[in-house]
Specification:
By secondary structure, the chain is α/β, with parallel strands linked by helices. It contains 14 helices and 16 strands. The protein is globular, with a radius of gyration of 21 Å.
Length: about 400
């Protein structure tokens, strides 16, 4: 980090950090830790969705107020953010996510003082996300969300595609393109076995493309009897179960899938072990701003198949997997290609992916980029960093 950057007081806002299967519940606390390691004063503000046995020491949680949980209303959080801004001791307020009142409060608060306001849409601006979801989005956007975003000093995109989403919606503020980081675990050797595993791991949600994956597996399962498909995750979120998993269970029975199982949500060491034990990871998503599970799988030395609903064109550049069109036919064709590869070839692809993660996605490297972005906004630098787009 450049030595002329002073310590800044930074507040990060996120809906919650208690849902381990949610990408921001991992990436935002890790960003905070990296910022602190770079000498910054950081507080992570989140709603108290569920009890946490060991919350991060830099976090501050706020109770939900009256109204539906999905509204994310917390007058306590609102008052605290305004108080912090009025104190004059905050340099940057950085919000992650959309579509709840907790994502509106930062935009209201910064209007009370001279604070740089950074916004990370976290996939909420994609065409898929804007077209899907509850009818309330159509009301919430013009009444609350859009107005709050007008106060942004700078947007943060995790990929080039998200930069284009921001511009498509008419926002002209600078955009810092900084991907999420990933932890690089120790890598035990992968030995060939009698059974090989294709793994999906993540939130069970309509946008993840499982409605394509299950029929695709039916199409190839008889040609690859040594392979099995494991789906890890749950459909529980901030608001409870969506019931989507029950529908997928019914679809699996209807398709008469073989060597296939739902194994529930995996976290911590169990999640890492699942990545390391898998021969191939798959994310057939319709829409992702990043796709942290892809980075986690690659860091664990496992090659991946990802649709172009996620910004992972580097897979082909690094020879670490497949980046394919969205659709059942492209997915079946890719599975026929990938599942036929020998064990050793997939191991080599996974090692190339791990090298890629180490070189470009370490938290130390990405935390420094964020600090430099904040410093530039605060007037501590000489010019915009190279990853900031102002066109």
């Amino acid at each position: 980090m450049p030595n002329d950057f002073k310590q800044m007081r930074i507040i990060q806002c996120v809906p919650a950090i208690s849902e381990e299967s949610s990408g921001p519940s991992y990436s935002v606390p890790r960003l905070c830790e990296s910022l602190i390691a770079h000498g910054q004063d950081v507080t992570l503000a989140a709603l108290d969705w569920a009890p946490m046995p060991s919350p991060p020491p830099f976090s501050k949680t706020f109770p939900l107020g009256w109204g539906p949980r999905r509204l994310g209303r917390s007058p306590t959080m609102k008052r605290w953010l305004i108080k912090q801004v009025l104190s004059g001791n905050v340099n940057v307020l950085h919000n992650h996510g959309m579509w709840q009142m907790n994502a509106v409060y930062p935009g209201w608060a910064v209007k009370k003082g001279d604070v740089n306001f950074v916004v990370s849409p976290r996939g909420s601006f994609s065409e898929w996300a804007m077209q899907h979801g509850s009818w309330a989005k159509k009301v919430f956007w013009p009444m609350f969300q859009h107005r709050a975003l007008e106060a942004a000093t700078c947007f943060h995109a995790t990929a080039e595609s998200e930069y284009h989403d921001i511009r498509r919606l008419g926002f002209r503020q600078p955009v810092a393109i900084i991907p999420n980081g990933v932890d690089i675990p120790d890598l035990p050797p992968k030995s060939p076995g009698n059974s090989r595993t294709l793994l999906f791991l993540g939130r069970i949600h309509p946008k993840k493309g499982l409605d394509m994956l299950l029929p695709a597996w039916q199409a190839v399962q008889d040609r690859f009897p040594e392979w099995r498909l494991v789906v890890a995750g749950s459909d529980h979120g901030y608001y409870g179960s969506s019931g989507y998993l029950d529908g997928l269970r019914g679809l699996a029975l209807e398709l008469n899938l073989k060597r296939f199982e739902f194994v529930g949500e995996l976290n911590g060491p169990r999640k890492l072990l699942a990545y390391q034990d898998a021969d191939l990871f798959i994310l057939p998503t319709y829409s992702e701003n990043f796709g942290i599970t892809v980075a986690e799988a690659l860091a664990a030395g496992t090659p991946v198949i990802v649709t172009k609903g996620a910004p992972w064109d580097g897979l082909e550049i690094w020879g670490a997997g497949w980046w394919i069109d969205i659709g059942l036919d492209p997915l079946v064709a890719c599975l026929e290609n990938a599942l036929a590869r020998p064990h050793g070839e997939l191991v080599e692809m996974g090692l190339r992916g791990r090298d890629w993660m180490e070189s470009e996605f370490s938290w130390t490297h990405l935390g420094q980029r964020m600090v430099e972005t904040y410093g530039w906004l605060a007037g501590n630098g000489t010019g915009a960093p190279e990853w900031v787009r102002q066109d």
